[in-house]
Amino acid sequence: MSNDISMSGKTGKQPLAERVNNRSRRAGSQAFRDFIGTGWAPRDTTTPPRSGAADYLPARYAKLGEPFAGDRLVIPAGNYKVRSNDCDYRFRAHSAFAHLTGLGGELEPDAVLVLEPLTDASGTPLPGCESEAGTHRGIVFFKPQAPRSSEEFYADSRYGEFWVGPRYTIEDMEAVTGLEARDIASLPDHLAKDAGIVGLRVVRGVDDSVFAAVEKVREEAHLASGEQAREADESLEERALTIRLVKDAYEISELEHAVAVTKSGFDEIIANLPRAVNHHRGERVIEGAFGARAREDGNGLGYDTIAAAGNHANTLHWIDNNGPVRPGELVLVDAGVEADSLYTADITRTLPVDGTFTSTQREVYEAVLEACEAGLAKASEEHAKFRDVHDAAVAVLVKHLAEWGVLPCTAEKALADDGQQFRRWMPHGVSHHLGLDVHDCAQAARELYLDAELEPGMCFTIEPGLYFHADDELLPERFRGMGIRIEDDIVIEADGTARRISEDIPRTVADVEAWIAQIRTTRG
Hints:
Elements: E1 4-7, E2 10-13, H1 30-36, H2 57-65, E3 71-76, E4 82-84, E5 87-88, H3 95-101, E6 112-117, E7 136-142, H4 151-155, H5 161-164, H6 170-177, E8 180-183, H7 187-192, E9 199-202, H8 208-220, H9 230-242, H10 249-271, H11 273-277, H12 282-297, E10 300-301, E11 306-309, E12 330-335, E13 337-338, E14 347-352, H13 359-379, H14 386-403, H15 411-415, E15 459-462, E16 465-468, E17 482-485, E18 488-492, E19 498-500, H16 509-523
Parallel strand pairs: 3-9, 7-8
Antiparallel strand pairs: 1-2, 3-6, 4-5, 6-7, 10-13, 11-12, 12-14, 15-18, 16-17, 18-19
Helix pairs in contact: 10-12, 13-14
């Protein structure tokens, strides 16, 4: 069948990109255009509240900009990503942009943060910047609210108020962020200003159009571009993520909030366990109960929920969640709410479906719990390194594996680098940093992450587990088919001690059983 169509009396082939609009008729008459912009009450001009992150942005810019004096730094928010045909996923800004603007939720697709240098490469203030402190100041470029008389208002499905609701004005954006704000249309001219006198770096792979604009300016100003600029660009991206290894007070408060809402999500899971047992895909009931709370009280899920009943718990990233939930089994739930600020919790609890642990389930559970406590104690020690938390927790698990007689060697040999046989039952790391990303700062260099000493403000998980597959013939039969993980979110306090942010989410055998009983009594 031909795709030729008649346009203005001519026959031609319609470009593929334009065919998405063939499914509906669009109003285009001048009469409609004149009519649509009339008869509207004045807009609400209430100024939106200032972001809680706004006061922390100058300190973040100082950390980020220290190695980049004299360079203009470009951090895009990113674009919508296609889910299917002309339907997009919900927008979620690049984490560096969110961290450096304080903008969360679905703000702002296609926006760009530019950090303007206040000094040259030698540290000498640039003209007009003599009175400003620090190395850089921020300017947000975005698509501001359009007037109701414009075609964008009713016809633009990406930005139009009819489609996506009211957008910020320039004044709104400045009020929320505390930064100067400008129309995104002015970005190309701004990037070109003083190019060559100031350098230009961009976070790559986030917005192709922004990268192209930066490349155009660099080429015209005879600055390094393309592959010659890759190392400089990637050093900006690396710096943007490593400055998040230590959280400020606002970030910690947002993680605490995310954990509190996550606790409510687990309450919903427990309340829905009886319904899950009676559903042929009970794991989906658990997933849905948590997801509803995440959307009601947060931005949504921080990551895909793992709701793994019975032997499914031994698949580490089980997100199909399509299995039954059976009486007498355990269900491992790894879930976290992402707050509106985009900071996410990451919690795992292993729950007895019937409300009480069997003696065998309790035996394995308490071994994992002991490992959790060992990891937390190690994190509180002076000069403890990130890697030490893993080693302390794993040593406890290996002790129990040796006592159960399942190791093919001594505990000492299993723990040695040339051993590691315990990984058959505990294959993953015990900790990872947590923040705007569930695996925050994952691209940080080893010396800044795994080999680094723990510092006040670092936030991370402790999540040991034991995974006993149903078909593992090296295990006692009573252990087979259960997987147990306990995961808590941790912050290093100013005095160097490690605190569980998730302390209020029950974790001991007695407390978990009491938690389930209490919810079933009050909500059953």
